[in-house]
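Aggregate trends can hide what the representation actually does to any particular protein. In the encoding step, the backbone of a single protein was reduced to a row of integers, each denoting a local shape. The record that follows shows the chain in one-letter code together with its fold in token form.

***
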Amino acid sequence: MTEAKNFTSVKEFILLGLTSHRKTQLLLFGIILIIYLLTVLGNILIIILVKVNSNLHTPMYYFLSHLAWVDMCYVTTTMPLMLTHLLTGDGAISFTFCMVQIYIAVTLGGVEILLLGVMAYDRYLAICCPLLYPVLMDKYCQLQCSSACWVTPSLVCLIYIVCLLCQNYCGPNQINSFICEMPVVLKLACSDTRIAEAIIFVIGGLFLLVPLSILLTSYGFILHSVLQMKSGGWRKAFSTCGSHLIVISMFYGPLLWVYIIPKTDSAADRDKQITIFYVLITPLLNSVIYTLRNKDFHRAVAKIL
């Protein structure tokens, strides 16, 4: 029975980062710092505009402001530590902080998944049921949907952390990434991880695929309704949904690759490159895509200026 007792001798992990070349690290520090500041400023701009401009007090922009909060919190969870490691050249991270980072990052990822599903359902109601839309998506319904998006992932991710903490970590402690990620950390466990991997795979698959099915169903109905429009309303409908579809493709593609599709150990470097996309690029592009192609935001900015 003593062999089954859990123990953890690893007190810290070593993040190998993006590169070990010192000059490249300093160059990346400057680039990532600029990306981080632009991401935070862009999402703060969205939140402020939605708050102060009465024309943006609609369900679509209400959920968009929550998405901006998620992106801003996510980059703040991952990028400052990454910048510190690039500046100092030391990739050490404590075991406890690694678990905390995994919990917060995965929770925020889950919040974004659910928000994208809710936003797709909101667009379906607005386009396919315009007369019932104000009743079906009133302020109480908005509050219920947003609360569920924030609370549900935080509870589900507790299961993930329990699966990680129940493993034995006796070495090695090097993580071939620039942040602590659940699949990579689980590979470092000395004990049998098949049950934990099965639990994580099933829950993760449901959490990704159920909202994705809602997304595809909603946009299937939207496409059917748009094709039946005889006037120029289809242009406005496509314009409204186009930004959302671009964000969905950028977000779901990398996540499905890293967390769902089975891979061999030789794909570790490729996973790290894909992780760069959804950790650094997607949160920045979300704010750019939603504001650059949106005339309501253009008018709101012009009004403030």
